[in-house]
Specification:
The chain has nine helices and no strands. With about 230 residues, it is mainly alpha-helical. The protein has a single domain, classed as Methane Monooxygenase Hydroxylase, Chain G, domain 1. Helix 2 packs antiparallel against helix 4 and helix 2 runs parallel beside helix 5. The N terminus is likely disordered.
Length: about 230
């Protein structure tokens, strides 16, 4: 009898389709972070709340897919792919959406004061972090092609190059995040101490989007190496 479970059907076609589906929703979630910060810059509380709600909705959708994968991932995969490797890759993808939710929650729950001159470098950091997440998704989309080639040959080289570029992009965000933090601390006397602490946390969380994206690439590289 054919299974009526859609997740099981996906696994029947490829062990990677559910993982790619999850990453697609994660990217939809994190894509809302840029307009979220734009609403902060514009001091548009209604739009800020709207973007926060979209992020929370997409994060819940990603969680639902994650839970389905964990519930239905076969105990044994008839492939040269370890089940635990796939679960760890899934967890790293999920951390991106979780971080986007943390950012949105903080921006709505606490009204953040934006220092003059912070808007432009902040948005540059946000955009670069989102580009890094998109690069991570591009590597995950290559999993089917890797499977077709038995994780060998030119396709592996292409994916490895993409992962290297992913690391370079994450390094960019590190530099940008440190510069933004220095700018914040240079004018911290203009903010309440608690506000400085929350801004520092927020900058860290934005950078964590790229950190988690890089870890997706690192885990994929390990999977290929095995």
């Amino acid at each position: 009898m054919l299974s009526t479970n859609p997740m099981a059907a996906l696994f029947g076609r490829s062990p990677f389709k559910p993982l790619q589906q999850h990453m697609s929703v994660v990217i939809e979630c994190v894509a809302e972070v840029q307009p979220l910060f734009q609403a902060l810059i514009d001091d548009d509380q209604e739009q800020l709340e709207e973007r926060k709600n979209r992020i929370f909705l997409k994060e819940r959708e990603a969680d639902a897919i994650k839970n389905d994968i964990c519930d239905h991932l076969p105990k044994r995969l008839l492939l040269a792919v370890d089940r635990q490797d796939l679960l760890e890759l899934l967890a790293m993808q999920d951390a991106i959406a979780d971080t986007a939710q943390d950012i949105a929650g903080l921006l709505v729950e606490r009204r953040m004061e934006l220092l003059a001159g912070m808007a432009e470098p902040l948005m540059r950091l946000v955009v670069r972090c989102l580009e890094t997440c998109t690069q991570a998704q591009a590597t995950i989309e290559k999993l089917d092609e890797l499977l077709e080639t038995g994780f060998r040959g030119r396709e592996v080289k292409r994916v490895e190059a993409m992962v290297v570029e992913l690391g370079n992009m994450e390094s960019d965000t590190d530099v940008m995040g440190m510069a933004l933090t220095r700018a914040l601390f240079s004018e911290e006397e203009k903010l309440k101490p608690l506000s400085v602490m929350f801004w520092y946390q927020l900058i860290q969380w934005v950078g964590n989007l790229a950190d988690h994206a890089e870890k997706v690439g690192d885990r994929l590289r390990l999977l290929i190496a095995r």
